[in-house]
Design a protein that fits this description.
Elements (H helix, E strand, L loop, with lengths): L3 H11 L11 H28 L5 H36 L5 H4 L4 H19 L18 E6 L4 E4 L5 E4 L4 E5 H9 L3 E3 L3
Antiparallel strand pairs: 1-4, 1-5, 2-3
Helix pairs in contact: 1-3, 2-3, 3-5
């Protein structure tokens, strides 16, 4: 009982760079919760023993286990909180649909949380008379039109003015920022900066 598993769980989550979100580590989480339960039970027994015997030599171990409980709880809550913040970030950058590779890394409650968050965000945006879209300008635009390069064959894109643009791999276009920001976030287009 050292609390190392809880620390490693948090560290592993923070070091995930090859994916948007790491797989949920239920095995280590169960082991941490079991460690918390054992420490709590041992502290409870020692507290009862102290009430009977008034043996002050029990205090250091009770204090150690209590600190271990708090550390494990903080690490566990930090792990869960960071996963939710990552889901929030995914929602803002990729939109309301979870891709299959992200979905396989999530638990059912996390998927439900993501869907509920998406609904709340959509309801908020549509509650305004002009139905604002908070996703269009995450960063303030410097220009209304931007130069983009198509990274994959996507097909036709119809613009608000009725014009149709064929998005073929490696083609370069000069498009309205509002029309292509969602395609940039999805990895279909790449903003070419000069």
């Amino acid at each position: 009982m050292s609390g190392q598993k809880a620390f490693n769980l948090l560290k592993e989550h923070q070091q995930t760079t090859d994916r948007l979100i790491s797989n949920f580590n239920s095995e280590d989480l169960r082991a941490i919760l079991e460690e918390i339960n054992i420490a709590f039970q041992e502290n409870h027994q020692d507290a009862l023993k102290f009430q009977e015997t008034r043996d002050k030599t029990l205090f250091p171990m009770i204090g150690y286990r209590h600190a271990l409980l708090q550390r494990n709880l903080r690490c566990t809550l930090a792990y869960l909180y960071n996963r939710l913040m990552k889901l929030k970030e995914i929602r803002w950058h990729l939109g309301p649909v979870i891709t299959p590779d992200i979905k396989e890394a999530l638990t059912e409650p996390e998927i439900q949380w993501f869907n509920n968050y998406s609904k709340l965000l959509t309801n908020y945006m549509t509650s305004f008379p002009d139905a604002i879209n908070l996703m269009t300008d995450i960063k303030p635009p410097k220009a209304l039109f931007i130069e983009v390069k198509c990274l994959i064959d996507h097909g036709k894109l119809e613009l608000e003015n009725g014009e149709t643009v064929l998005l073929q791999k490696n083609s370069i276009h000069y498009l309205p920022r509002t029309e292509c920001e969602h395609l940039i976030r999805q990895g279909i287009l790449e903003h070419i900066s000069h």
